[in-house]
Amino acid sequence: MVCPRCVMAVEEVLREMGLAFEKVELGLVRFSDPPDSRQTEAFERRLDALGFAVAKSRETIWVETCKVTLIQLLEEGADGPDGTISQILADKTGISYSRLSQLFSSLQGITIEQYFIELKIEKAKEYLSYASHNISETAWKLGYSSMQHFSAQFKKHTGMTPSQFRKLSQKPRKFLNQVGDR
């Protein structure tokens, strides 16, 4: 789960199933009363039907934590925490960035850097879909050093310039939790 709507959807499933929980946040459910194996299986099926996967291995949890953290950083924009992304990810996961980078690439098929660029491009599409965001503001909000760099990266990933994308009547977009799916 990577967005507030995802959290609400999971909370709704938990309530419908009568499962007691303390907290649901991005990528995590904390049960107040652990479900039995039958309930866990049913809960996982319901999550799967919503397009969510349950991370079970330590490695998968680290990668999912990385993805959720990158989405949160993207949502926070310029107001986000201080520090390099690699240090923030290492702190959040509790493993070295080098190890996390290797795990991420082997499980996702792309590097953390490529994944973050794809996230930024999808977020740019969201901003560009609204008339209230101009191209230079979008570039700034996403942390690009220049509008030219943003435009070049956007075109490399979408095949069109930000201006061309804005003119489309149907703007192709992905949910942020679908970015990086191969």
From TrEMBL:
InterPro entries: Homeodomain-like_sf, HTH_AraC, HTH_AraC-typ_CS, Tscrpt_reg_AraC-type_HTH. Residues 68-168 form the HTH araC/xylS-type domain. Gene3D superfamilies: Homeodomain-like. GO terms for molecular function: DNA-binding transcription factor activity; sequence-specific DNA binding. PROSITE patterns: HTH_ARAC_FAMILY_1, HTH_ARAC_FAMILY_2. Pfam families: HTH_18 (PF12833). The keyword Cytoplasm does not apply. Keywords: DNA-binding, Transcription, Transcription regulation. This is Helix-turn-helix domain-containing protein.
